[in-house]
Amino acid sequence: METTTSKGQQTAFRALPLGAIKPAGWLRNQLRIQADGFTGHLEEHWGDVGPDNGWIGGAGESWERGPYYLDGLLPLAYLLEDEQLIAKAQRWIEWSLASQREDGYFGPAGLIRTVNNDLDKKQDWWHYTIMLKVFTQYAEATGDERVVPFLTKFFRYMDGMIDDHPLQGWAKARGADLVLCVQWLHEVTGEPFLLELARKAAEQTTDWTDVFHDFPYWRKVEEWDWTTHVVNVAMGIKTPGIRFALTGNETERAAVHRGIDSLMTYHGQAHGMFSGDEWLSGTHPSQGVELCAVVEYMFSMEHLTRVFGEGRFGDILEKVAFNALPATIAKDWTSHQYDQQVNQILCNVAPRNWSNGPDANVFGLEPNFGCCTANMHQGWPKFTSHLWMSDGRGGLAAVSYAPCTVSAQVGSGAGAAITVDGAYPFRDTVSMRVELDRPSEVFAVSLRIPAWCEAPSLTINGVNAALNVVNGYARVEREWKNGDTILLALAMEVKTTSRNLYAVSVERGPLVYALPIQENWQLLKKREKFHDWELYPGSPWKYGLRADSAYEVSEAEVPYQPFDAAHAPVKLKAAGQLVRDWKMVGNNAGTPPIYPNVEGQEIAELTLVPYGSARLRIGEFPLIGEREKAWKKK
């Protein structure tokens, strides 16, 4: 499935330009909720990205926070075709374009102004990398002819500086993002110096291939290191893939897979992420994971899909997007956490066994530290813009089946639009309609078949079609006619996954299910719009699941906000019991007991909801069954 471009890059798929994919259904609603909450109003309520920000000419913060914010605001604005949001983003774009000097440098002048003290404030490349990502998206969405010469001029400046001022610190750990931007421009212009700059930047980037190929971090990390910082790890996992696009070395592919395997073995969590309540933190379900890491891991999976064309990365992307992302943001997008927990029974200001501060799991404007407040906005928009990709051979590849319409040229140049209907992942069937600007065209549609689906089926115009799955994709090449319909059924079976110390998580398709705990939201700090909240439990949480439990699926209408436990569009009924000896430890749910004490406890009917819809929850349960019987015999 791999294609090699005329410019030397090797990738299986190619990303479509921003705007080629239009969100629909619940996904469009999610983007609208985001726009009506933080993303559309943050400038007016948070000074770090307000009028005084250095990236729009102010004397305030001039490092990463403005670019981070724009990296989500801009794609959101164009996906929603929201003129007010587009105008907001344009102000930042115009300022940067106007700031460029003759030598190619652009952006805020003088010392970098930031609350961070872990960088050289005289010179740094990291904040430029973020803004470069913004400009590549802006160019795709608008075709603004100023962008290519602007970026070319800056990269010539960088090429003359990077030997004497190499990537350091954050820029070194996250250098793959810089390489992506250089590669993007090289694809457009073919300038030879850009390929050399990309290789130079890749060489200066942290050797994540070495880290992931023979992973050394087997337990909770207790001290700072650039390669155990959870956001760096989430970004770093794509680095071998980006290097593969330069070299074609299969060691890079192996490093990615070995790295993901190791992260999930030693630090994996039920929601699809690995822990990191600032550093890699082990498998305990009360350890946290930072919101920045969630959105960056999604971005990494999108690019690993592009480079390797393997379904595994789409599986991970969906699991994180449909579970970890919504779980850590309030349903109205007016508050968020810094760290979330799989077993989250209490969100309050209190010491925890984390390196982060005591307010890291409260919901608010900027709990613990403001990086997530700036960076969280990219998650849903970039997920949307990578739902489909080109296969580089005139065909299209489905990365995820969230509702949308994708438009692209296919085959010999026909204009095609594929509309994806349905309520996936809350339903297990996906319907698609093919529209062409001519009666017919021969091209391939590559359908991702998730690893969790054991019995997929496909019909085209009502006729059964074979699925030959290779590396997670079934390639269907045929003469498509205008108006053809595709129905893909991805049977979702309830599965329990055995985790650390025999605790279990519950999954059905890409959704993880959790026991929702009644949420008592108590005001911690009132502001004009974005308040801080502590969450206290209003119902019991100490439930284990019966090993012999059946799981009954019930469905309801998909609401405007599907990630709301009170109105969940799909639920599971299960059998469980209260576990008397499950303790609270350090303001958290303690370790799920290996031999849960349920003597005398009645069997209760539990209603489980999608993990992402419950802000207080149990997502990893003690298992009640055979081991409990063995314990009683002792």
Distance between the termini: 57 Å
Shape: globular
Strand content: 15-25%
Q: Any idea what the radius of gyration is?
A: 24 Å
Q: Classify the secondary structure makeup into a structural class.
A: alpha+beta
Q: What kind of sheet is the major sheet?
A: 9 strands, mixed
Give the fraction of residues assigned to helices: 25-40%
Low-confidence stretches: 1-8, 629-634
**Number of strand segments:** 30
The residue-averaged pLDDT reads 96
How many helices?
18
Structure overview:
The chain is globular and about 80 Å long. The protein contains 18 helices and 30 strands. The protein is 34% helix and 22% strand. With 634 residues, the protein is of the alpha+beta class. The model is unreliable at 1-8 and 629-634 (pLDDT under 50).
Strand-helix topology:
Layout: E1 3-4, E2 10-11, E3 14-15, E4 21-23, H1 25-36, H2 38-45, H3 65-80, H4 83-99, H5 126-142, H6 147-161, H7 169-173, H8 175-189, H9 192-204, H10 208-213, H11 230-236, H12 239-247, H13 250-267, E5 288-290, H14 291-308, H15 311-327, E6 339-341, H16 371-375, H17 379-385, E7 388-390, E8 396-398, E9 404-410, E10 414-421, E11 429-436, E12 440-448, E13 456-460, E14 463-465, E15 469-470, E16 473-481, E17 485-490, E18 494-498, E19 504-508, E20 511-516, E21 519-525, E22 532-537, E23 543-546, E24 552-555, E25 570-578, E26 584-585, E27 588-589, E28 604-610, E29 617-618, E30 623-624, H18 626-633
Parallel strand pairs: 8-12, 23-30
Antiparallel strand pairs: 1-2, 3-7, 4-9, 5-6, 7-8, 9-10, 10-11, 11-17, 12-16, 13-14, 13-17, 15-16, 18-19, 19-20, 20-28, 20-29, 21-22, 23-25, 24-25, 25-28, 26-27
Helix pairs in contact: 1-3, 3-4, 3-5, 3-17, 5-8, 6-8, 8-9, 11-14, 12-13, 12-14, 14-15, 14-17
